[in-house]
Amino acid sequence: MADNEDIAGTTAFEHVDMGETFCDEPMPGPAGLVIFGASGDLTKRKLIPALYRLFKDGFLSEKFFVVGAARTAMDDAAFRHAMEEAVKKYGDLDGKSWAEFAGRLYYRSMDYGDSEAYASLASFVREREEEYGTGGNRLFYLATPPTLYAWIVACLGSSGMSADPGVKVVIEKPFGRDLASARELLALVHKYFTEDQVFRIDHYLGKETVQNIVMLRFANAIFEPLWNRRYIDHVQITAAETLGVEKRAGYYEEAGILRDMFQNHMLQVMALVAMEPPSLFASERVRDERVKLLRSLRPLEPTPDRFVLGRYEAGEIEGGEVAGYTEEPGVAPDSNTPTFAAMKLYVDNWRWNGVPFYLRSGKRLASQVTEVLIQFKEVPHMMFDRILPSGIGPNVLVLRIQPEEKVMLTFHTKSPGSKMCLRNVTMDFRYTEGYTGHTLSAYERVLLDAVLGDKMLFVRNDDVDLSWSFLTPAIEHAEKGGGLVPFPYGAGSWGPR
Predict the structure, then answer these.
(1) What distance in Å separates the CA atoms of residue 174 and residue 259, rounded to the nearest whole number?
(2) 3-state SS assignment for residue 420
């Protein structure tokens, strides 16, 4: 080493841009999208605004079109106007790019149970495919109430549209309402579509910070050695909403919190947190590990120390009075539907044996937050006991999914000035800090992946079966008078005590 060199000169630091970004974003080819339920709320709030942003930002092929189908009587012009109003409300509309996008929007009014309507739709879609040169790359998106899934799938199959090359079907959650109905729907879907054609959507998996769980764990050597029962005391996964049931009482009375949040979102996030490292970052390898994790879940015993339900009552949210659940429009006064659930789960494998996973989700809670909290065990021997008799507490890693997307790590340092005084400090990384590129919303991500045919963020058939197998006994115990009565909690609180 020369006299004027120091240690830093022999390291890789001088060769690495610490802000460097490594990206791989493939571009999709020509495609056509048929949305069933095109006059509904999901299409207006999420799908069309997401598709428009993808188109405006250059993530979709020029050879791309959308056909909306629903019972509401409309022509192309009326549909385009309705979608323009939706994008103004839920997105960011630019006149020139909207005119180009709107010209690719079409609409067909139809009854979902009318076989002749599907024949007419098939003819119309094939004409558009010839016009745009999409080569038969076609997606059917079921944005209807779940009760219509079976009707639409069966009619697509009988019309022959499911057999066309390049066809995919995208199905929103919930996929069934229990294990038996999920298996029945699965059998029907597989009668007309192969598993490779089926994309079961869970938009939570499309959230940037949910995907970041995998990157944070497996792209950094500092976390994986600690990611096990030797160092982690417990894991908390929280999805809290300040909103009530709003205008979805009909759906929510059928679903409740367990079907709405736990069978899909909560268990999927847990699987990403706890799964083993896949040998390759590829769709089936990642999905294999998620399924293995779900297969390792200890059966959920519906006892008070493992499983609690709640239902919100009148209270205060952000300074305003709000009604209780049974006072909401469309909810029966004697409803027993839970709006909150908390459960203590265990994963019976070598990595996680004995580590509790606490999952909780609810409506009308104190704040809007979705996060994963990893609490590490305390130091094995507290050498500061004589000076700090109350202890110093554990280290905590928080992966905030929404509304603030960030990673926080809490640890202990000496407080400046005093000879012996410890303080907690938090290293706070905001997810988009220093990034100036385009960030895809959850629906943009999953729609783009569906067009590409990338299934990593979609739920496989055995995944659905395992999650329903795990949750159905608890749902049945609660709904058949098994003693799991929802505890009341005031709106604006953190749920029942």
Answers:
(1) 7
(2) coil
Q: Sort 445 into a burial class: Cβ within 10 Å, 0-12 / 13-18 / 19+.
A: buried
Spatial contact of 323 and 492, defined as CB atoms under 8 Å apart: no
Bridge partners of 316, per DSSP, are 321
Supply 154's token pair: 């069966």
Which DSSP symbol is given to 339?
S
Among residues 466, 444, 480, the alpha carbon closest in space to that of 91 is found at 444
For β-strands 422-430 and 406-414, DSSP reports them as antiparallel
Nearest alpha carbon to residue 290 among 480, 466, 130, 148: 466
Q: Does the model's pTM come out above 0.90?
A: no
The three-state secondary structure class of 232 is strand
Digit-coded pLDDT (tens) for 315-369: 999 889 999 999 999 999 988 899 999 999 999 999 999 999 999 999 999 999 9
322 residue type, one letter:
V
| 395-430 as b/e: b if 16+ CB within 10 A | bbbbbbbbeebbbbebeeeeeeeeeeeeeeeeeeee
- Asked if 43 contacts 2 with a C-beta cutoff of 8 angstroms, the reply is no
Location of structure tokens 């029966």: 332
Give catalytic residue positions. Answer: 265
Q: In this predicted model, what pLDDT tens digit does every residue of 371-427 receive, in sequence order?
A: 999 999 987 766 666 666 566 778 899 999 888 888 988 887 776 766 666 777 788
Q: Which DSSP string corresponds to 46-88? A: IIHHHHHHHHHTT-S-SSEEEEEEESS---HHHHHHHHHHHHH
Longest alpha-carbon distance in the chain: 86
Q: 375: which strand partners?
A: 234, 396
